[in-house]
Design a protein that fits this description.
heterodimer, A: alpha+beta, seven-stranded mixed β-sheet, 59 strands, elongated, B: mainly beta, four-stranded antiparallel β-sheet, two-stranded antiparallel ribbon, 1 helix, 10% helix
Chain lengths: 1167, 93
């Protein structure tokens, strides 16, 4: 190829704005508007890389995203592998290099930002060519909310003429002026999913003149929900399989024309055009007029009428039989032979062979939508047939050939959608001043040039998939191996599996295979298209969800304290929990984990230690039938629990297997509080709702999560009672007044608190529960009082050691979904008296009591220094020193293994077949492939008689002085980010403001519509019941949000929770409850509120919220997800989006608040 | 991404919901009266329907309400959404 830049051509480039770039080490110049491919062609570059399998040189094939060969690596500004040079827009200082197949990922993190946005439209038009533009304009004129998306740098599709492009610009201008139209260029719809859900990638900053502010994201994923989709995706030109069709210099005919008209690049001076249809004659004419020598090779015996002005040769009845190349593998000549076979009779020197086998309508997205395709004789490709979604098609994707036809088709599609007569006039006239050469003959499809009589298995130079180096020979071998389906042949040969996904070659593959099988290509079909349409970067898919924002990090109210005291973290689900607190060693350095945990364990067993238990799930259960409900849910009896008492309980699934465990507090006659394991909080609440709503809707029970209402501190150890006495002056801590498994409401260091005597360590221990926003104050005060007597903070690792020493199982660690309470040796927690509970029938199965079930046991290694790793297998060996010969009988596995300071030995909990019958016997633990002996013991290894539960029999030790101080102030979850939020909101010219509205009063109400109780409560509050879910009613200083049919959220200013709850209970008390009931739960500390306001408020939220926020213009609320956080979204008034006064509130759970705030800070930067 | 019409909250993305399996499989009135085989059928045996299938959904990221739906397991099209505890529309009573 001897490409060069011509004057008088190049509608897209700006010749007064040169750019310098580097390719394969050579410095070149191009212009603003160039692609990397056009600039390289203009500089005479022919070879863009080499093929992945055979290493053959590869040039450029197309001028668009269908490119199969010009796959390059960008090195600067940031390394990115396998980009198509035809879609990389030229920028100054771009550095790229050629590739053989695969590229190389960057070794460092990508400094660019990426994000996503949700969009809702009545109509999405894909493709801004003649059909798409006219359809989008017609729909927008009719008032529809339209989104027009196109993957190229500029609209117009395949249009090249100046008048045509002017027509396109005019429509684009019209769309820009319509508020109901959105238009995106450089945006590729890559996926079409269920219910018209589209994924598109917008390339925002990889080109000069993007005009976006500093901090704008580089790529943006659009998640689009469309009422209707119109696909005007155009067509890709098709290759032809002939010998040597893969060499640099062979390119698609229309692309040669595109390079000329858009970029002013004449791709060669000796041009041969090879085609069997008339469309490619446009290329012959245009390149001839631009100064190239042009010969057309046309297999037809009668060529079309050649347009006036074309003085090149036309060789009719001829085909290209092979190509010749120079020492670089670049095209130098073509050999021409007669149609139908015979020896080549002519050699034409050529630096460009422009090929057109016809058109492949771009049915990829239609196929992805579930639509079927059918063969179309006119194009020789496949066109959309039957749709399964709300999708229309228009333009060359249905096989239309001229722009004028496409324009009409686009308008007709919109008329059909609006139920209008096709005869109604539409004023989108296509320019007739610059008519395209009207093709005289219908196109004939030419897929391959086969030497007559040749064994197709020898055709190793006839490429069907140039990128994968798949030839006719490969297809023949696959067919010969008995593969019939085109899907199987694709996978066997890899044809169509490359970067381009067979856009130019897929139909050729089918046609070649069909010919071998003696069937029509339409009968054989093509492979189904799947997302993505073009390659997407992982960075774009990750969007904001990387680094700190990858997954919400949940933190407790005492997080700052843990940070300040050197906690090492354990990730427990989304929670960050202190794992252990390494101390600085006297000689320098810090403790390792073993030393820290040993020290923490000793403190808990001999003095006093404390930990953060706030992550435990907490569920408030209210209603007249709450006891009855809990009796079904737990294996033991809960309705008999006395107010003021606590009971341990176990939940099983209906199959009898352990689901969760925890404690149940009885707060009142009809009021319970239950705790769940940290990881199961949401699952257990869902489980309760499932039974309540789907099996026992007659039960009057309401369940509310209060996990983040209560912060929980456990203080543990023989000195804990003395410490508690100092902290809670009003509380009698004597064993008789606050016995094991009892709770009391009191004041602790001046904070309103609930103190419970619960132990997860076997030691005397208490839990202090305060409001989430009082956690910081509680930790500071307790630390001030306790540190002088050696109070020691401990983390999850020490918690695990302490509980394992006592044989307390962790559901999900010591159980795995096949373990019953009986397996754990916990038959005592399973009621024999209850008529039923969930799991009871399964527990009655004989198999549940079979002797070969696995039991939870303790294990002590013979060598106390050997760690027993979790997951290690227990085996049955008679001779431990002999080599293991499979099959080795398996007896179970270790579920928990630690070092115990109390035992001065390692130990483990294990699930062991028939374990309770093996006490005292030796089993072997496989450690690093070697059987290691261990003795089976009871799971309870420390204080088996439970003597320490009530403290040290010798007494609590000396009294502890409380350092006098006032009650600490509440700390809202975002207090530490208030400065960042303020700075964001005060940026000059900011269009979005974010602020925390701290400490709002919030009560969760259960009200039964139409009940006397609901009426009494509403009358007391002076507010009407909101008529439907999502509605808001306002009264005197209160707002009532309808979260569900019987669930409401009452909001008020700070500090009203107690007073409002009291008024509600008073009002509801005497009312006839009938089938309804009134429940009130204080959730003020559960969530905090973020106010997002300003003209771009909704624009910011659209980045993380799938709701159509523009439909929430009246005061209303919705529970949904925002930036991966569950939120209550409140739209605050009768605003128009984009108005200065627009305002929304977001109520987010306190543990998620910091994550959401950080997301808002980052997302708002651009606005 | 399916769009599911929550009876309380309106159409929401599939990711806001959890799937609850086949609908109309009631907890037996007296589990103790069932044989092991009958109990196992309740626990583990469900139709694997190609076509319209009555199933349960819960709007877990929204109102937390359970409801029933008839959905085509081939096209993923919802043809009916109805309250938990009510019979499948058009079903023979």
């Amino acid at each position: 190829m001897t490409g060069r830049r011509l004057d008088g051509y190049g509608s897209r480039i700006e010749r007064d704005r040169p750019l310098t770039f580097t390719f394969d080490g050579a410095v070149h110049t191009g212009f603003v508007g160039d692609t990397l491919a056009s600039a390289l062609l203009a500089n005479g570059v022919s070879v863009f890389g080499s093929s992945i399998m055979k290493g053959r040189p590869r040039g450029v094939t197309s001028a668009g995203p269908e490119e199969p060969t010009a796959i390059i690596q960008v090195e600067e500004p940031f390394p990115e592998p396998m980009l198509t040079a035809t879609t990389v827009e030229l920028r100054d200082a771009l550095v790229a290099r050629s590739l053989r197949g695969q590229g190389k990922l960057a070794a460092t993190g990508d400094p660019e930002r990426y994000d996503a946005v949700h969009h809702h439209a009545e109509l999405v038009v894909v493709g801004a060519g003649p059909a798409g533009l006219s359809a989008a304009a017609a729909a927008a004129r009719r008032g529809a909310k339209v989104l027009l998306i196109d993957d190229r740098p500029a609209p117009g599709g395949a249009l090249l003429g100046r008048a045509e492009l002017g027509w396109a610009d005019e429509l684009v201008g019209e769309l820009a002026a319509l508020p109901n139209a959105t238009h995106l260029q450089r945006t590729t719809v890559t996926g079409y999913y269920d219910r018209n859900y589209l994924i598109a990638v917008e390339h925002r900053t990889d080109h000069p003149d993007h005009g976006l502010a500093e901090g704008a994201t580089r790529e943006r994923i659009w998640r689009i929900r469309a009422g209707r989709v119109l696909l005007a995706t155009g067509a890709h030109e098709r290759t032809i399989a002939f010998a040597g069709n893969d060499v640099p210099g062979v390119l698609l005919a229309e692309s040669a024309r595109v390079y000329l008209h858009r970029y002013g690049v004449l791709v060669g001076s000796d041009v041969v055009v090879f085609t069997e249809h008339d469309d490619a004659y446009r290329t012959a004419v245009d390149l001839f007029e631009a100064g190239a020598a042009v010969t057309v090779v046309d297999p037809r015996q009668t060529p079309p009428r050649v347009p006036a002005g074309f003085a090149g040769k036309v060789l009719s009845g001829s085909v290209i039989s092979s190509t010749e190349v120079d020492e670089n593998g670049v095209l130098t000549a073509v050999l021409v032979g007669p149609t139908g076979g015979g020896a080549a009779h002519q050699r034409l020197s050529a630096d460009v062979l422009a090929v057109s086998g016809g058109w492949n309508p771009a049915v990829q997205l239609f196929s992805q939508s579930g639509g079927s395709t059918v063969f179309d004789n006119a194009t020789g490709g496949f066109v959309p047939d039957t749709a399964t979604q709300q999708v229309s098609v228009a333009g060359s994707v249905v096989g239309l050939r001229t722009s004028a036809e496409a324009v009409e088709d686009g308008i007709a599609a919109i008329k059909a959608l609006f139920g209008e007569s096709p005869a109604d006039r539409e004023t989108i006239a296509f320019p007739e001043s610059e008519p395209e050469p009207v093709p005289a003959n219908p196109p004939a499809a030419l897929y391959a040039v086969l030497p007559p009589g040749a064994d197709p298995r020898t055709l190793t130079e006839h490429y069907v998939d140039i990128q994968r180096d798949v030839t006719i020979a490969d297809i023949a071998i696959a067919s010969g191996a008995g593969l019939r389906s085109v899907e199987h042949v694709k996978r066997y040969t890899t044809a169509g599996t490359a970067h381009d996904q067979g856009k130019t070659s897929g139909v050729v593959t089918s046609a070649v295979l069909a010919a071998m099988q003696g069937v029509e290509v339409g009968e054989l079909g093509v492979t189904k298209f799947r997302p993505p349409y073009t390659a997407i970067s992982f960075a774009a898919l990750a969007g904001r969800e990387r680094g700190d924002l990858y997954d919400p990090v949940r933190t407790t109210g005492a997080h700052r304290w843990h940070l300040d005291h050197g906690a090492r973290w354990e990730n427990v689900g989304q929670w960050k929990r202190p794992w252990f607190y390494p101390q600085t060693l006297p000689g320098g350095g810090t403790e390792d984990m073993h030393a820290a945990v040993t020290r923490e364990c000793i403190a808990a067993r001999t003095n006093v230690a404390f930990m953060d238990g706030s992550t435990l799930g907490k569920i408030d259960v209210q209603g007249p039938d709450a006891g009855q409900f809990l009796d079904m849910l737990y294996t033991n009896l809960m309705s008999s629990l006395k107010v003021g008492a606590i009971r341990y309980g176990v939940m099983c699934a209906a199959d009898g297997m352990m689901l969760d465990d925890g404690t149940v507090f009885r707060l009142g006659d009809e009021h319970f509080l239950l705790t769940t394991t940290t990881g199961n909080a949401a699952k257990v609440l869902d489980w309760m709702e499932e039974w309540l709503q789907t099996e026992w809707p007659h039960l009057r029970v309401g369940c509310t999560s209060v996990t983040e209402q209560w912060a929980t501190m456990a203080i543990v150890g023989p000195r804990s009672r003395a410490l508690l006495a100092a902290l809670a002056a009003d509380l009698s801590v004597a064993n008789a007044d606050l016995p094991f498994m009892a709770w009391k409401d009191t004041s602790v260091v001046g904070l309103s608190a609930r103190v419970a005597r619960i132990s997860f360590s076997g030691e005397l221990a208490y839990e202090i529960n305060v409001a989430w926003h009082d956690a910081a104050a509680l930790w500071d005060a307790v630390w001030a009082a306790g540190a002088p007597i050696g109070l020691t903070p401990y983390g999850t690792e020490t918690m695990h050691v302490l509980r394992a020493e006592k044989g307390y199982p962790i559901i999900g660690q010591d159980t795995d979904g096949t373990i019953t309470p009986q397996d754990l040796g916990m038959s005592w927690v399973v009621s024999k008296k209850k008529l039923d509970y969930i799991g009871k029938r399964s527990h009655a199965r004989p198999a549940n009591n079979a002797p070969n079930r696995q039991h939870l046991v303790g294990l002590l290694p013979v060598d106390p220094a050997v760690p027993l790793p979790e997951g290690a297998q227990l085996i049955d060996v008679s001779n431990a020193s002999a080599p293991l010969v499979p099959p080795v009988p398996m007896l179970g596995h270790i579920t928990s293994g630690y070092f115990s300071a109390a035992l001065n030995s390692t130990f483990a909990l294990a699930l062991l077949v028939g374990g309770r019958d093996r006490m005292g016997s030796t089993v072997h633990v496989v450690i690093d492939g070697r059987p290691t002996p261990a003795v089976v013991t009871s799971a309870v290894l420390v204080d088996p008689d439970g003597l320490r539960r009530d403290g040290d029999p010798a007494g609590d030790g000396p009294a502890i002085d409380l350092i006098a101080r006032g009650a600490g102030l509440p700390t809202s979850p975002l207090a530490s980010l208030s400065g960042d939020l303020a700075a964001l909101s005060k940026r000059p010219g900011t269009a979005v403001r974010v602020a925390e509205v701290p400490l709002t009063t919030a009560l969760n109400l259960r009200l039964t519509r139409g009940s006397a109780g609901a009426e009494a409560v509403c009358a007391e509050l002076g507010v009407a019941l909101p008529p439907r879910t999502g509605a808001i009613a306002t009264g005197d200083g209160v707002e009532l949000l309808a979260l569900g049919p019987d669930e409401f959220l009452l909001l008020s200013g700070p500090g009203h929770a107690r007073e409002l709850a009291g008024r509600i209970e008073m009002a509801a008390g005497p009312a006839d409850r009938g089938s309804g009931f009134v429940g009130v739960t204080d959730v003020s500390a559960s969530r905090t509120t973020l106010r997002v306001s300003g003209p771009n408020a909704r624009t910011v939220l659209r980045h993380g919220c799938a709701l159509d926020l523009e439909s929430m213009l009246e005061p209303s609320c919705a529970q949904t997800m925002l930036a991966q956080c569950a939120v209550v979204l409140i739209s605050d008034g009768l605003f128009t989006p984009g108005e200065e006064a627009d305002q929304l509130r977001i109520m987010v759970r306190s543990s998620f608040a910091a994550h959401l705030a950080r997301w808002l800070l980052l997302t708002s930067v651009e606005y | 991404m399916m769009l599911i019409d929550c009876p309380e909250c309106g159409p929401r993305d599939e990711t806001e919901f959890h799937y609850g399996g086949a609908a109309h499989v009631a907890y037996p009135a007296d589990p103790a009266a069932l044989t092991d085989q009958e109990w196992a059928r309740y626990l583990f045996f469900r139709a694997n329907t190609r076509g319209d299938f009555a199933e349960r959904w819960v709007h877990s990221a929204g109102c937390r309400r359970w409801f029933n739906a008839v959905r085509n397991t081939v096209t993923y099209e919802f043809t009916a959404i109805y309250p938990a505890g009510t019979p499948r529309p058009g079903a023979q009573v």
